[in-house]
Design goal:
The complex is a heterotrimer. Chain B is an alpha+beta fold. Chain B contains 21 helices and 31 strands. In chain B, a hairpin with a 5-residue loop joins strand 15 and strand 16. The longest helix of chain B is centred in the last third of the chain and has 28 residues. The radius of gyration of chain B is 28 Å and the shape is globular. The N and C termini of chain B lie far apart (about 75 Å). Chain C contains six helices and five strands; from the N terminus they run E-E-H-E-E-E-H-H-H-H-H. Chain C has a five-stranded mixed β-sheet. In chain C, helix 3 packs across helix 6 and helix 5 packs across helix 6. The chains are: A alpha+beta, B alpha+beta, C alpha+beta.
């Protein structure tokens, strides 16, 4: 199927782009890896595409005071190969090999993925897990929203039609933080049936204060309310880790679809969580028996 | 000097060098001046009456040349109806290129917009208003079978399109006497072929000469020429069908599709060239589907592990119409007739019923029904082995049928001759180091790692002859023909009725001809896929290309050689029997020096025939046809094995390794044969693990995109180790059996037995294909509860 | 339905500069195939899944169905035709032919674009080759031969390096 007709503009300056976005039916074209597919299926019919690919100000990964800034034109491949990301936002680096395939990663952008808010996508989940800040700009206005407030439902976000995400700021990983990531997809690179990401603080004899996000199965990334009170002790047994996983999945509200029923996804999420906890425990306390080392 | 024989050698395909350079010429690549493009409005309802179609707005849209309905096309195109002489109950209503009055599946074409570009045509389709009256939908097979079920089409009396039984021996008695009986229920989800190049057709009509030329992404151009001529009321000689490069076919491109017929009719009606390339979304709802079946199988064994009887009941889903012209019964019939084909078994009872449904028609997909029969048989054998406490390999070894006699038949009536079941079996166990794998399996289980080893022996029907369709009065030719011409420059032109969608059959033919004639393979030029350039014949279906087309080529080459040597003998004043051809030159067996070249023979015969002292000048253009008329087909055989690991917590399955030992008789080109087998295996793995057309009870396809319909990708597929046993068939001079479907016949069964072997410690046997993670977890949960 | 929104573009295609006026909605694959008649780029799904339309844009493999023609303004685009003419993937093409790593050939130009990019990096393992190929569907070969062919070339290129 061929895309319906639309108008196209390619501003070189952000201000011009923001001004164009005030047009009724205008939409941002960044990586286009979901947008153009939906156009080709006539699932969307924008009046105007505002191609931001020429706006230099939107490029670049920057190590800034307020965190690691990923501009709206940063593509998955840039994040995947960025030494700054590998060092400062290791969870992103862990997750990116799961994002689609090479050709799609070569064009798709981090911010575009956040704006689309596909429930099966990794980026929204990671932004929530890491408590990233999303910068939204529109003609004459700029605001910053916590990722944890940005996602509002299935493909629904706090972004207004004339706003665009110009950058996302990930907090720098602290020295005492540890991360885990796992997802279940039918085939490598497919959208996740269910995925989980974990951030924890290493307190010496335990991993504590967990930020656990479950995604793929949920309409939007689920930040587990139980996480902050959970603790992976150096000597926690598998049944204990399994109990923690059960606590987390109790809050899931999985969508029922061809990937599975809600109970199946809960079961699978619990397995991914338990295994990830176990893996983090091994990494955190490697080389020592119980306790400190 | 003797040139090394090409037959049996891994000769790369000449076409491959063209295709890797992007120089393929597929239907959509062909440029024609003034070409118009067709986009269809398709029914979004699985069953509805067309109350009113308003196309006025569309007619005024930019670039639109015509907006046509089924009624418009009826002026130039006659209706058709699949009829099988031996199965008169398999009858769906007459069909037209586009629905008239009633639509019977979601995706059926209703209106065609013809415009200057596909995009403009699609723009116009969005303005067409159709008033529908929804009718009751019969989607799943159980609903179609219900006593008070609504009918799929209002012209039908019942949805039952096939009710067929077979009975060999006395199955009831055998089950009574059995020491061990096992049974299982099997479900096979609906699949579709997903050729990477979707269906495409380009039709040109010359109104002055009333000649129709069709470029068609298709397997059987001669069949389609016959059909286009009949439906459009044109003399056969006025229709030319060309199948250029075809981007995958797998049986999907064997049928006459209504929307493609519409394109031909539009070309005739408008007297303009028109093209239609299905996009991926419409391919999912308009390509023929396959495989949908439910089976209940029982198996009886004696105390020594000898198979005595099977009882199999198959229910098959046909979709809305019987596929034209070959019908939709093949899957169901093969599913029951092919059970236990590799095994000695005296008693079989089988019943198969097929139902029409408000879904796309089902048709041919690589291996037609054979994967179902193989899966049912092999899985039941494994269950019996468990009950008997026997190793699954040992159980099979005890039961292979003796095929030494040419008249061997399976209980299902399958003709078996000169097979090598035991040799393939032994070779496979050696290849995979079966004993070691079994030992390791136990070690892994002790650590909570669940690996399974699955075997699947199989019979593959290949080189199918005229009795299959001929007896049904279906005009699908089983004859293959080769026309060999010695060109004036000494090259050989080989025009064949078979077609090649990448299998490599044209290379195999070049090898056969080169060796039989004694010429360099580079001098053999193959013409294929064009009804104007090639002799009449079947095309590509049922693993017949090399086996039958190759036989015709071999026979033609031998005759051409006779002609050449006859003329050479006259010119050299030597007995032809003392002459031979090597490397394109004529030698006297007594001398190492070439006497003359093939070019000399041709030049003399074509331009100076008066110098040839023969009363009759032998023809240097030879046409030979071949169809096996004594046998319905030539069976091939083999065995496959899968090694898998099941994550019993997540429900996921990893295929670790895969092996195939195949006997396709004489192997003409191992390089090509191995890839045919591997490609077939991956399609079988896809069936077992991924592929399913998911329909709601409302008859809507819910996963009709390439994002949601999962086909195998490189990451999940294993390396596939292939070995051969070669038992040439005596049915032909060439001795080759077919191989195109071998991989698909057995691969799904090997995955079934492997996965269920992995799950054996839990006492769980999966029963629904594909094995999704949820199905695996559900089976495990049901057991634990 | 809106009217065509035409834009002038200039870009490098297979090493030569090209200018054209393109409708905004035309995707790159259709532009290459039907406007420029470079039919070696194939269209298998038009929703970015199958990889048959992969080409190199600024040296990176790209779904040409998921990029608008107007977006290649100023870019370097290489299609199978250019990759062939320049000889830069001649070894891959030879290996694919020798190994019969293709049947119908429809996926092959896209697979080669992916392989070309993959082999710009370090020598991949067999598993990495399979991973990289996962965005390219092949319905005919079963993938094994494709992996073999790429592995062979990776080895040879590595061997040839000082």
């Amino acid at each position: 199927m061929k895309a319906p007709a639309f108008a196209y503009r390619r501003p070189e300056e952000l201000a011009e782009a923001l001004s164009l976005l005030t047009t009724e039916g205008a939409q941002v074209l960044a990586g286009g890896q979901s947008l153009i597919a939906s156009l080709n299926m006539r699932l969307s019919a924008p009046a105007l595409l505002v191609d931001i690919n020429r706006i230099g100000a939107l490029r670049g990964i920057e190590d800034r005071e307020d965190g690691i800034r990923i501009g709206a034109l940063v593509r998955h491949v840039d994040v995947l190969h960025s030494p700054v990301i590998a060092r400062q936002v290791p969870l992103l680096a862990m997750a990116l090999p799961h994002v689609a395939h090479m050709a799609v990663r070569n064009r798709g952008t981090t911010c575009g993925s956040l704006a689309l808010a596909d429930p099966s996508a990794e980026m929204p989940a990671l932004a929530v897990a890491l408590n990233a800040e999303i910068v939204l700009e529109k003609h004459g206005d700029r605001r910053q929203v916590a990722a944890r407030d940005f996602f509002q439902g299935l493909y629904q976000t706090d972004r207004e039609d004339d706003e665009m995400i110009t950058e996302v700021i990930f907090p720098r990983a602290a020295d005492d933080e540890m991360f885990g990531f796992a997802e279940l997809a039918r085939r490598h690179g497919d959208f996740a049936t269910v995925g989980i990401s974990v951030r924890a603080r290493h307190t010496g004899d335990a991993l504590e204060n967990l930020d656990v996000v479950v995604f793929g199965s949920e309409a939007m990334p689920l930040l587990s309310p139980a996480g902050p009170s959970l603790r992976i002790a150096a000597d926690a047994t598998e049944p204990m880790l399994a109990d923690m996983a059960e606590t987390i999945v109790a809050d899931m509200e999985p969508m029922e679809n061809h990937q599975g029923r809600a109970d199946t996804k809960r079961k699978q999420a619990a397995v991914l969580l338990r295994r990830t906890f176990k893996d983090m425990q091994s990494r955190a306390f490697a080389g020592r028996g119980n306790g400190h080392g | 000097m003797t040139a090394a024989l090409k037959t049996g050698a891994s000769v790369p395909r000449r076409n491959a060098a063209r295709l890797v350079a992007g120089k393929g010429r597929y239907t959509d690549d062909i440029q024609v001046a003034g070409l118009l493009h067709v986009a269809f409005v398709r029914s979004s309802y699985p069953h509805a009456r067309l109350k009113r179609i308003d196309t006025r707005a569309a007619e005024d849209m930019p670039g639109v040349v015509a907006v046509l309905t089924g009624d418009d096309l009826a002026k130039v195109c006659a209706p058709w109806q699949t009829q099988l002489a031996l199965l008169p109950s398999h009858l769906s209503p007459p069909q037209m290129p586009m629905a008239q009055g009633e639509v019977c599946w979601q995706g059926e074409a209703v209106v065609a917009v013809v415009a200057a570009s596909r995009a403009l045509a699609e723009d116009a389709t969005e303005t067409i208003e159709i008033e529908w009256e929804e009718l009751p939908v019969v989607a799943d097979m159980a609903a179609a079978a219900g006593a008070d079920a609504a009918v799929v089409h209002s012209a039908m009396a019942s949805n039952l399109g096939l009710d067929h039984t077979i009975s060999t021996g006395d199955a009831d008695d055998a089950f009574r006497q059995a020491s061990v009986t096992v049974e299982h229920t099997f479900s096979f989800d609906r699949q579709t072929g997903v050729t990477l190049e979707p269906r495409s057709i380009l039709a040109e009509f010359d109104p002055r000469l009333r000649q129709l030329t069709i470029h068609h992404s298709h397997q059987v151009p001669h069949q389609m020429r016959d059909i286009f001529a009949a439906q459009l009321k044109l003399p056969l000689s006025s229709v030319r069908v060309v199948a250029p490069d075809v981007g995958g076919a797998f049986g999907l491109k064997l049928a006459a599709y209504p929307d493609e017929m519409a394109v031909a009719a539009i070309a005739v009606l408008l007297e303009r060239p028109v093209k239609f390339c299905a996009d991926r979304l419409e391919a999912f709802v308009s390509d023929n589907h396959a495989r949908e079946a439910k089976v209940h199988g029982r198996m009886a064994m004696d105390a020594n592990g000898k198979l005595t009887a099977m009882d199999v009941s198959v229910v098959s889903g046909f979709g809305a119409y019987s596929a034209y012209p070959r019908g939709s019964v093949g899957e169901a019939l093969q599913a029951v007739h092919m059970v236990a084909a590799p095994y000695k078994m005296a008693h079989l009872r089988g019943r198969v019923r097929g139902y029409f449904q408000n879904k796309p028609p089902s048709g041919v997909l690589r291996a037609v029904g054979q994967p179902i029969a193989t899966t049912v048989t092999e899985q039941l054998l494994d269950l019996a082995a468990r009950r008997l406490g026997l190793d699954p390999a040992e159980l099979r070894r005890r039961n292979y049928v003796d095929t030494a006699t040419a008249t061997a038949r399976s209980a299902g009536g399958i003709v078996l001759a000169e097979l090598s079941l035991e040799r393939c079996h032994d070779r496979l166990l050696q290849l995979m180091d079966y004993a070691t794998l079994r030992q390791r399996q136990q070690m892994h289980r002790d650590k909570g790692i669940y690996r399974g080893i699955g075997l699947a022996a199989f019979i593959e029907q290949t080189a199918v002859g005229p009795t299959l369709y001929g007896a049904q009065n279906v005009r699908a030719s089983a004859q293959e023909t080769c026309r060999l011409t010695l060109e004036a420059d000494g090259a050989i032109r080989c025009a064949t009725s078979i077609t090649d969608q990448g299998q490599g059959t044209s290379t195999a033919l070049a090898q056969i001809v080169a060796d039989a004639l004694g010429v360099d393979i580079e001098t053999v030029e193959i013409a294929t896929g064009d009804t104007q350039l090639t002799p009449f014949g079947g095309g590509a279906w049922a693993s017949r290309g090399t086996a039958l087309g190759g036989e015709a080529a071999l026979r033609a080459a031998r005759k051409l050689k006779e002609s050449v040597l006859g003329i050479a003998g006259a010119l050299l004043q030597t007995e032809p029997g003392l002459l031979k051809i090597e490397d394109g030159r004529i030698y006297n067996t007594a001398s190492p020096l070439p006497q003359m070249s093939l070019a000399d023979i041709a030049t003399t015969a074509y331009f100076k025939a008066h110098l040839v002292a023969l009363a009759e000048l032998p023809s240097l253009e030879i046409t030979e046809s071949f169809a096996p008329r004594d046998l319905p087909y030539v069976a091939a055989n083999g065995i496959q094995a899968a090694h898998v690991e099941v994550d019993v917590e997540l429900g996921t399955i990893r295929v670790l390794d895969f092996w195939v030992v195949d006997d396709c008789g004489r192997v003409i080109n191992p390089l090509l044969v191995d890839e045919q087998i591997r490609g077939g295996v991956v399609q079988g793995i896809g069936a077992a693990l991924y592929e399913q057309c998911i329909y709601g009870v409302d008859g809507q396809l819910e996963n009709g995109s390439l994002v949601d319909y999962l086909v195998p990708m490189a990451s999940e597929m294993p390396d596939i180790h292939v070995a051969h046993v070669q038992t040439p068939t005596s049915a032909t001079t060439l001795g080759a059996r077919g191989v195109g479907e071998a991989g698909t016949v057995g691969a799904a069964a090997a995955i079934w037995t492997a996965v269920n072997d992995a799950l054996a410690p839990f006492g769980v046997v999966l029963s629904e294909q594909p094995f999704t993670p949820e199905r695996v977890l559900d089976a495990l949960a049901a057991r634990k509860d | 339905m809106g009217m065509a929104d035409l834009h002038s573009i200039a870009f490098m295609l297979n090493g030569k500069s090209v200018t054209a006026d393109v409708d905004a909605r035309l995707h790159l694959a259709d532009f290459l195939r039907h406007t420029l008649h470079l039919t070696g780029t194939h269209v298998g799904c038009e929703h970015g899944v199958c990889g048959a339309c992969n080409v190199l844009v600024d040296g990176r493999s790209t779904r040409s169905c998921l990029m608008l023609a107007v977006q290649v303004d100023g870019a370097q685009v290489e299609t199978i035709e250019g990759l062939t003419a320049s000889g830069q993937i001649a070894d891959l093409q030879e290996a694919f032919t020798a190994r019969n790593a293709l049947q119908c050939g429809y996926c092959t130009p896209g697979v080669l674009a992916t392989a070309a990019e993959l082999l710009n990096g370090e020598k991949p393992t067999r598993e990495e080759i399979r991973d990289a190929l996962s965005g390219n569907y092949c319905r005919c070969t079963g993938y094994h031969a494709i992996v073999d062919a790429i592995e062979t070339v990776a080895g040879k290129r590595q061997g040839g390096a000082p």
